[in-house]
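TA notes, week 10

Several of you asked for a full example with nothing omitted. So below is the full record: C-alpha cells for the whole chain, then the designed sequence directly under it. When grading your own attempts, check the secondary structure regions first.
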C-alpha cells in the first residue's frame, strides 16, 4: 500500500500493475531492436503495450487476473560485419643492398654522367646538397658502386596495395616531316598553348596538393574543362595563329603527343626540335586498349606499330579512333645545337629540366618518386623475357604515367628507338636510391 497516497490502491489492481510492470520491462528490453528497424514501429508498440496495461475497473475476477498478451518482438536482421579498412602500404621502404635484384650484375658507371645531370638541378635542394657535392668531387677512376653504397640507401617501391610488381613501357623521340606553312600534304598542325588555357596550381591552396594542377577555361565567371581533342581538331578561334608547324601524318602527330617531344624535318632540310609546352587537362585514354575492346586488334597487336597499320587500313575510321583519347598536347619549339644539327645522344629536355639520356632516363609519377632521383629498374627487354636491369634516373614525367611502380623508359631518337619503345610493355620492379640523410619517405 502506498502510504503517500490519500487513497489505498485495491490489491487486485496492485497485482495487475506488478505483472504488467514485469511485462513492460521485458518488452522495453527488446524495444531498441524494434526502434532500430523503425522508430515509428517501436513507438507504436510501446504505446499499445502501455495502453493495454492501464488500470481499468475490474469487471470480474477472471478479467482482473488477466494481463494483456504481449506481442512477440520481430527478429532483428543481422547486419553484415564491416571489414576494417586496411592501412595503405608504404610507397618507399628501406632495404639492404643485397635485396636489390640485379644490382651486383649492373655497372652503375654507365649512369654516372646522367646522375651528374640530375645533380645540376638537385643540389639546390638541402636533402641532396651534400650527396651531389661529393659526386662532383669524385676522383676519376673511383668506384661508382662504392659511392652509391656508401652515401645512399635503396628503397623498395610498392603500390598502395603492397604489391611490388608494376609496369614499364617505353618512349622515344620521333622524326616527322613538316612545313612552316599549310601546303600540299602538310595539313595537320602542331599547336602552341592557347591564351585561354587556364592553369590552377593547387599547391597555392594546399601545400599537400603540390603535384596537382588543374587546367580549364573561363565560361562567364566559371572555370570549366578545356576543350577535348575532337573540338580542338575541328579548329578553335583561340588556336588561330598558334600553329607552329604543319606535318603530313595525323597518326605520327598523335604519337608525337604521347611521346611529348620530337624532331621535324622540314622540306627545306632544316631540322626543328619541338617539346611539351602544356596539355588540355583532359584524361588520357589508350586507343590501343579501345581497339582491343572493339575486337579490331588482338592484345598482342596493340602496339604503336599495330595501331599505325590499323590506321592505314581503316582511314575512314581514323578520326573517330584518335578522338577516343580526349587528351591533347601543345608544343613549343626548342633550340637546336649550332648549325641546326643535334646529336642522337643529345635527348630532349625532360620535366627535371635536363636533357634526357637514351636508355638511362625514365619518366615516373613525381607524386610517388622524387624527380631526379636514381632508380634501379628491374624489367625485361621489349617483348622478351631477357632481363633488363639498370640504374636509371627519374628525369621526366608523363600524363599516362600514374602509380608508384610505373616507369616509362626513354629509348632515344629515331626509328630503331621507336621500334623498341612501341613494343615495350613489361613487368617491372623498382628501387629508389636516396641519400642516407634524406628525410624519411612516407
Amino acid at each position: 500500500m502506498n502510504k503517500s497516497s490519500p487513497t489505498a490502491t485495491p490489491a487486485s489492481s496492485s497485482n495487475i500493475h506488478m505483472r504488467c510492470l514485469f511485462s513492460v520491462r521485458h518488452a522495453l528490453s527488446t524495444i531498441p531492436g524494434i526502434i532500430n528497424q523503425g522508430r515509428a514501429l517501436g513507438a507504436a508498440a510501446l504505446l499499445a503495450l502501455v495502453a493495454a496495461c492501464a488500470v481499468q475497473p475490474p469487471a470480474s475476477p477472471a478479467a482482473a487476473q488477466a494481463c494483456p498478451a504481449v506481442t512477440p518482438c520481430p527478429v532483428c536482421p543481422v547486419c553484415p560485419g564491416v571489414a576494417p579498412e586496411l592501412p595503405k602500404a608504404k610507397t618507399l621502404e628501406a632495404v639492404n643492398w643485397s635485396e636489390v635484384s640485379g644490382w651486383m650484375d649492373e655497372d652503375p658507371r654507365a649512369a654516372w654522367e646522367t646522375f651528374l645531370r640530375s645533380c645540376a638541378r638537385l643540389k639546390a635542394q638541402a636533402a641532396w646538397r651534400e650527396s651531389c657535392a661529393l659526386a662532383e668531387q669524385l676522383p676519376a677512376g673511383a668506384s661508382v658502386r662504392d659511392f652509391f653504397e656508401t652515401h645512399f640507401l635503396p628503397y623498395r617501391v610498392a603500390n598502395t596495395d603492397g604489391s611490388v610488381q608494376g609496369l614499364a613501357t617505353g618512349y622515344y623521340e620521333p622524326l616527322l616531316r613538316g612545313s612552316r606553312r599549310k601546303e600540299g600534304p602538310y595539313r595537320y598542325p602542331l599547336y602552341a598553348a592557347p591564351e585561354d588555357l587556364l592553369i590552377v596550381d593547387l599547391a597555392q591552396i594546399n601545400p599537400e596538393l603540390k603535384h596537382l594542377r588543374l587546367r580549364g577555361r573561363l565560361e562567364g565567371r566559371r572555370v570549366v574543362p578545356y576543350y577535348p581533342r575532337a573540338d580542338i581538331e575541328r579548329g578553335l578561334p583561340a588556336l588561330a595563329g598558334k600553329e607552329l608547324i604543319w606535318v603530313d601524318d595525323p597518326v605520327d602527330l598523335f604519337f608525337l603527343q604521347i611521346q611529348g617531344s620530337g624532331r621535324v624535318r622540314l622540306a627545306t632540310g632544316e631540322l626543328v626540335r619541338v617539346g611539351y609546352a602544356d596539355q588540355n587537362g583532359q584524361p588520357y585514354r589508350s586507343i590501343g586498349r579501345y581497339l582491343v575492346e572493339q575486337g579490331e586488334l588482338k592484345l598482342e597487336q596493340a602496339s604503336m606499330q599495330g595501331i599505325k597499320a590499323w590506321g592505314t587500313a581503316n582511314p575512314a575510321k581514323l578520326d573517330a579512333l584518335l578522338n577516343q583519347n580526349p587528351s591533347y598536347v601543345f608544343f613549343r619549339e626548342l633550340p637546336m645545337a649550332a648549325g641546326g644539327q643535334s646529336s642522337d645522344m643529345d635527348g630532349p629536355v625532360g620535366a627535371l629540366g635536363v636533357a634526357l639520356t637514351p636508355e638511362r632516363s625514365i619518366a615516373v609519377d613525381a607524386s610517388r618518386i622524387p624527380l631526379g632521383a636514381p632508380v634501379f629498374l628491374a624489367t625485361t627487354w621489349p617483348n622478351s623475357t631477357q632481363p633488363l636491369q639498370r640504374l636509371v634516373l627519374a628525369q621526366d614525367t608523363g600524363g599516362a604515367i600514374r602509380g608508384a611502380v610505373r616507369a616509362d623508359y626513354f629509348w632515344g631518337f629515331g626509328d630503331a628507338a621507336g621500334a623498341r619503345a612501341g613494343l615495350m610493355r613489361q613487368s617491372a620492379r623498382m628501387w629508389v636510391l636516396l641519400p642516407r640523410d634524406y628525410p624519411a619517405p612516407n
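Confidence is low (pLDDT under 50) at residues 1-58, 338-344. Use that as a sanity check on your answer.
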